[in-house]
């Protein structure tokens, strides 16, 4: 049975010390504020902030400049809480600085928070800065660790939608193997951070701008020509086999885009980025302008349709190159007939080389 909510708590400049159990235990708190509150030298957790396991979550709580110091297990233990924020909080000399656990924990943010000199106490409290377990939508923004004996951030238990941006890892202990660990089955986005120890990333993890300036995109990538790849891609030198993409068979509207209808005018414009087949009905003698936004190697076809009058002529811009096989272009003169011109773009030469011209359809 769910406990009733604890509503509208407001603690300011309170210190709790020397309890054998957790220093501060908040059950189902909602719309509550804690400002400059300290839990120090307590057993179990410094703070236990929780809803009902398998039931209602606590919500709408803010923790500003709160502190957990020298506690046995976790500085801030957060279980089954939703849309809560921690701003400028600190957790020092703890088994874990901050632990966010349970699928009921969602939309939890840490802004400008830090943890220092944690202690590997074993039995699950192994000196992590942050442990994010099974939670959804947890964000760390411009957070800080110092002298971590273990990983600064550990994402585990199929946690999803975890964001870590602007993170700074400082002077980790020699016992720390990794700075950020993301386990298989989790999803995370990491960006613009300064790590000392290497990353250990599995699951669906995207990285931009770590210490080495690398970028890793996980999951899938659409490439040129609508190719579809699965795996990881990295900008760092000499990618591992795990970072090699595997091409998959994939077809969608990008592979066979719909024809693009061009605007008939004295000079006909083509935006090559819009597709590969362009169609226009000629209402007079026309010039086909140089296409804009082409891709090197792009093959495009133009379908020219005579109107009900017929005998319309076409002049190609100087960007179109004719060869000995197709040395000139003369359209069908019959009304309502159509002709097809195909060209391939060479970026080095800034030329569309005409490779086919078929008439009279």
Describe the structure.
This protein is mostly beta strands. It is 0% helix and 48% strand. The protein is built from no helices and 39 strands. It has strands at 6-7, 10-12, 15-17, 24-27, 29-35, 38-40, 47-50, 58-64, 67-69, 74-79, 81-87, 90-92, 96-101, 106-111, 114-116, 120-122, 125-126, 128-133, 136-141, 144-146, 153-156, 162-165, 168-170, 180-182, 187-191, 200-201, 204-208, 215-222, 228-234, 246-248, 260-261, 267-268, 277-282, 286-288, 299-306, 314-316, 320-321, 338-346, 351-358. Strands 1, 2, 5, 8, 11, 14, 19, 22, 25, 27, 28, 29 and 30 form a 13-stranded mixed sheet that branches. The chain is elongated and about 95 Å long. The protein starts with 5 loop residues before the first strand and ends with a strand. 35% of the residues are buried. The model is unreliable at 241-245 and 247-255 (pLDDT under 50).
Given as residue ranges, the uncertain stretches (5+ residues, pLDDT < 50) are 241-245, 247-255
CATH domain fold name of the largest domain: Pectate Lyase C-like
Strand composition percent: over 45%
CATH class designation of the largest domain:
Mainly Beta
Going by CATH, the homologous superfamily of the largest domain would be Single-stranded right-handed beta-helix, Pectin lyase-like
Give the overall silhouette: elongated
Mean pLDDT across the residues is 89
Number of DSSP E strands: 39
Could you say which structural class the secondary elements and strand pairing correspond to? mainly beta
Number of helices, where a helix is a run of at least 4 consecutive DSSP H or I residues: 0
Give the helix proportion (percent range): under 10%
Tally of individual domains: 2
Largest sheet: 13 strands, mixed
End-to-end distance: 76 Å
Rg to the nearest angstrom?
31 Å
The CATH architecture of the largest domain comes to 3 Solenoid
């Amino acid at each position: 049975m769910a406990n009733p909510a604890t509503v509208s708590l407001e603690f300011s400049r309170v210190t709790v010390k020397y309890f054998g159990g957790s220093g501060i235990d908040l059950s189902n708190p909602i719309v509550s504020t804690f400002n400059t509150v300290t839990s120090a030298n307590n057993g179990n957790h410094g703070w236990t902030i929780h809803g009902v396991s398998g039931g209602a979550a606590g919500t709408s709580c803010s923790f500003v400049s709160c502190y957990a110091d020298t506690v046995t297990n976790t500085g801030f233990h957060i279980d089954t809480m939703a849309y809560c924020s921690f701003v400028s909080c600190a957790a020092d000399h703890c088994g874990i600085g901050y632990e966010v656990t349970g699928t009921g924990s969602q939309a939890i943010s840490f802004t400008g928070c830090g943890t220092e000199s944690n202690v590997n106490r074993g039995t699950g409290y192994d000196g992590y800065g942050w442990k994010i377990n099974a939670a959804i939508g947890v964000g760390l923004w411009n957070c800080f660790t110092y002298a971590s004996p273990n990983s600064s951030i550990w994402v585990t238990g199929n946690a999803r939608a975890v964001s870590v941006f602007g993170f700074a890892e400082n002077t980790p202990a020699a016992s720390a193997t990794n700075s950020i660990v993301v386990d298989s089955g989790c999803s995370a986005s990491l960006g613009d951070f300064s790590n000392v120890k290497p990353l250990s990333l599995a699951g669906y993890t995207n990285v931009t701008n770590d210490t080495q300036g690398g970028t890793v995109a996980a999951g899938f990538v659409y490439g040129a020509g609508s190719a579809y790849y699965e795996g990881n891609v990295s900008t760092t030198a000499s990618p591992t086999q795990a970072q090699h993409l595997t091409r998959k068979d994939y077809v969608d509207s990008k592979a066979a885009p719909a024809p693009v209808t061009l605007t008939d005018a004295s000079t006909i414009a083509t935006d090559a980025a819009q597709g590969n087949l362009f169609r226009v009905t000629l209402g007079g003698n026309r010039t086909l302008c140089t296409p804009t936004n082409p891709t090197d190697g792009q093959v495009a076809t133009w379908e020219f349709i005579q109107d009900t009058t017929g005998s319309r002529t076409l002049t190609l811009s100087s960007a179109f190159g004719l060869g000995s096989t197709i040395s000139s272009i003369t359209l069908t003169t019959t009304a309502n007939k159509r002709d097809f011109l195909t060209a391939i773009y060479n970026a080095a030469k800034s030329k569309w080389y005409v490779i086919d011209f078929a008439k009279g359809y």
